[in-house]
């Protein structure tokens, strides 16, 4: 099983980090290599450009891949790829934008005009649906500059914080696509056990994110009071404590943001020896 991941750029590190947290440790370093073996002898990681990953999967050079939805749409390979999981990073929007003080305020103003983009396929598809038909010019970077040097009247480009658009005095006219990094597989292999296994491993990291494991001792006659204040995931686990007298151990998974309040409340309800730990993975 080969899984293609971004070799550089902003998606590289978070992707490797996620694989590691999912237990898929990369063997002997990932730097400057084209591929790496993992602790799982059946899984090899291929390093490719984020934009090439959809093609790798479609061609069968890799069975699975991690990249932005924008890249998959732009590749034109959406039909051959199955999206298995939203990995919830690399969140951005592809937007249509034009100079703030120019004469383009709406989509219809673009009839007969020019739009520059690194995403020509997505841009053409977007305009095909609107009935407006501007000329699309492909560039490979610094798209935000093109309206200021009379190369284009508007652009379709990525935005997340909005800083780049603002610095270049460009205003958003419309949203073209909302994207994030996702796990993809070739449609022919989605039901293979290894593919499911990898999906579950990555998903368990996302589920554990923002959750904490709470452990405490509780006198038996206070259990109901404690149970009432734990906003647990499927209710707490209750266990006997060796030589614990009348005390039992209560374990629960709690949202990180609820931890502070929950500790205060379980203490008030009679709990002691409260321990909070991180959760690496949570398979539901
Ligand atoms: N500002 C951003 N915020 C969030 N996600 C982004 C942003 N810019 C790009 N992305 C996501 O990351 C993907 C790859 O972008 P990135 O700039 O890291 O790689 P690249 O453009 O291939 O690399 P390079 O720019 O070094 O050639 C994009 O397709 C998109 O999904
Ligand atoms: O809304 P913002 O937070 O300003 O982000 C948007 C910018 O981020 C990306 O560029 P990147 O940083 O990847 O540089 P690049 O042009 O070298 O790819 C994208 O091409 C935009 O220019
Ligand atoms: Mg970039």
UniProtKB/TrEMBL annotation:
Its main location: cytoplasm. Keywords: Amino-acid biosynthesis, ATP-binding, Cytoplasm, Glycosyltransferase, Histidine biosynthesis, Magnesium, Metal-binding, Nucleotide-binding, Transferase. InterPro entries: ATP-PRT_HisG_long, ATP_PRibTrfase_cat, ATP_PRibTrfase_HisG, HisG_C, N-reg_PII-like_a/b, N-reg_PII/ATP_PRibTrfase_C. Residues 49-202 form the ATP phosphoribosyltransferase catalytic domain. GO terms for biological process: L-histidine biosynthetic process. GO terms for cellular component: cytoplasm. Its cofactor is Mg(2+). Pfam families: HisG, HisG_C. It is found in: Cytoplasm. The keyword rRNA processing does not apply. Pathway: Amino-acid biosynthesis; L-histidine biosynthesis; L-histidine from 5-phospho-alpha-D-ribose 1-diphosphate: step 1/9. Its EC number is 2.4.2.17. Residues 208-281 form the Histidine biosynthesis HisG C-terminal domain. It comes from the Archaea. Catalyzes the condensation of ATP and 5-phosphoribose 1-diphosphate to form N'-(5'-phosphoribosyl)-ATP (PR-ATP). Has a crucial role in the pathway because the rate of histidine biosynthesis seems to be controlled primarily by regulation of HisG enzymatic activity. Belongs to the ATP phosphoribosyltransferase family. Long subfamily. This is ATP phosphoribosyltransferase. The lineage of its organism: Archaea, Methanobacteriati, Methanobacteriota, Stenosarchaea group, Halobacteria. The gene is hisG.
């Amino acid at each position: 099983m080969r899984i293609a991941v971004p070799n550089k750029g902003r998606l590289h590190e978070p992707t490797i980090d996620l694989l590691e947290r999912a237990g898929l440790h990369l063997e002997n370093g990932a730097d400057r290599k084209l591929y790496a073996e993992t602790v799982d002898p059946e899984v090899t990681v291929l390093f490719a450009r984020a934009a090439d990953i959809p093609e790798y999967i479609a061609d069968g050079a890799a069975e699975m891949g991690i990249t932005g939805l924008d890249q998959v749409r732009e590749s034109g390979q959406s039909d051959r790829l199955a999206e298995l999981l939203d990995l919830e990073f690399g969140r951005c929007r592809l937007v249509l934008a034009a100079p703030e003080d120019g004469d383009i305020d709406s989509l219809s103003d673009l009839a007969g005009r020019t739009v520059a983009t690194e995403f020509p396929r997505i841009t053409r598809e977007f305009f095909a649906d609107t009935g407006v038909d501007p000329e699309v010019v492909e560039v490979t970077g610094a798209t935000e500059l093109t309206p200021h040097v009379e190369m284009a009247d508007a652009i379709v480009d990525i935005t997340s914080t909005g800083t780049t658009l603002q610095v270049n005095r460009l205003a958003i006219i419309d949203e073209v696509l909302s994207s994030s990094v996702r796990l993809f597989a070739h449609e022919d292999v989605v039901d293979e056990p290894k593919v499911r296994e990898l999906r579950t491993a990555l998903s368990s990291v996302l589920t554990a994110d923002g959750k904490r494991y709470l452990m405490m001792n509780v006198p038996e006659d206070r259990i109901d009071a404690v149970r009432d204040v734990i906003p647990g995931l499927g209710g707490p686990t209750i266990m006997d404590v060796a030589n614990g007298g009348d005390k039992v151990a209560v374990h629960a998974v709690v949202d990180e943001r609820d931890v502070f309040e929950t500790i205060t409340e379980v203490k008030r309800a009679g709990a002691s020896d409260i321990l909070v730990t991180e959760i690496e993975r949570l398979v539901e």
